[in-house]
Amino acid sequence: MKVKIEIDTKTFVRFWLVVIGLGLAGFALYSARTALLIIGSALFLALALETPVNALAKRLPKRSRLLSTTIAFVSVVAILVGFVVLVVPPIVQQSMHLFEQIPGMLSSDSQQAKYVSQIIDQYHLQDQVDRAVETAKSNAAGWISNISTNVLSGISSLLSFIFATFLVLVLSFLMLLEGPRWLDALWGSYLDKQRMERHKELAGKMYAVLRGYVSGQLLVSLIGGMCAGITVFIMSFIWPLPASLAFPTVAIVFTLSLVPMFGATLAGIVIAIVLALNSIAAAIVFSIYFIIYQQVENNFISPQIQSRTIKLSALAVLIAVTIGTYVFGLLGGIISIPIAGSVKVLLEDWLQHRKAKHVAKTNKPLAKFIKKVARSNDAPAQ
User: What does pTM read for this prediction?
Assistant: First the structure.
């Protein structure tokens, strides 16, 4: 049995216009991903600082928003400087410690070398090891020749990161300072008051989702980072760990925990590896602590803080985080969830508005009929 489907020309053209439009929009977004990432990060920071800026402005003379925003950003810069001062030296120290241990690990008398030798002999891997060594020797010249190129590339990446950070700070400052003025001008430009109220309500819902998620995620990540740092600090009195590792632990766990779903797990793995360079027992104990803490955070802390902010399914969250991370990197993964929540608000409003228009259109003939009957009943009385 053959089924014949007929599509009129108008529908066919409209379909392909939508497909082409979506393709061009996707290409444009991908091409401008760096700029969009900077703007999104600036918006994320502005939303995180908006509540303290507003609270501070109410306590300042003449409610100066300029002064409150300046104080907030001076605090942010001070935190960034403190981050560099407290976090970078311990990381450099641990890296140097690792390099110092490498010759001992490679020594034939070391326990690690003996253990590796036993595995090679047990599983007859000597031929594979010899081939790997020969390959490494043949590629060594190429690696050495590429050192200068890699150094220049690293310097270029560092300068780009510094410039992007500066742009994020400037954009966030201007968003906080001029944001209310822009909104007032936008609402004042509406001629249709009813449409303005509808769009204003929609913007309020999106703003509540964004601010609620940003503030909640920052608080959850901060609690996780502080607990991990305190744990490492206490462990430094039991095992041979430098107490200064507590500061990088706070920074790493806080930063990576901002990435939904797998960020906290990645942070725990990184800290466990760093601790293992000093003490295997400490790394095992920290891993056990981190697994237990993640259960507490996921079942008690996060639901209490993040309740009623973004109601997305696990599949929607995974899709948003995957797209954000692979297209925009780590920061893309961080801002993917609030963006997905805003898109959900827009879709729900669009579907509700479309349903209301459909109901009104369906009821229109009935309303005309009732009106016509009412007029016919009033005619004899006149």
Answer: 0.69
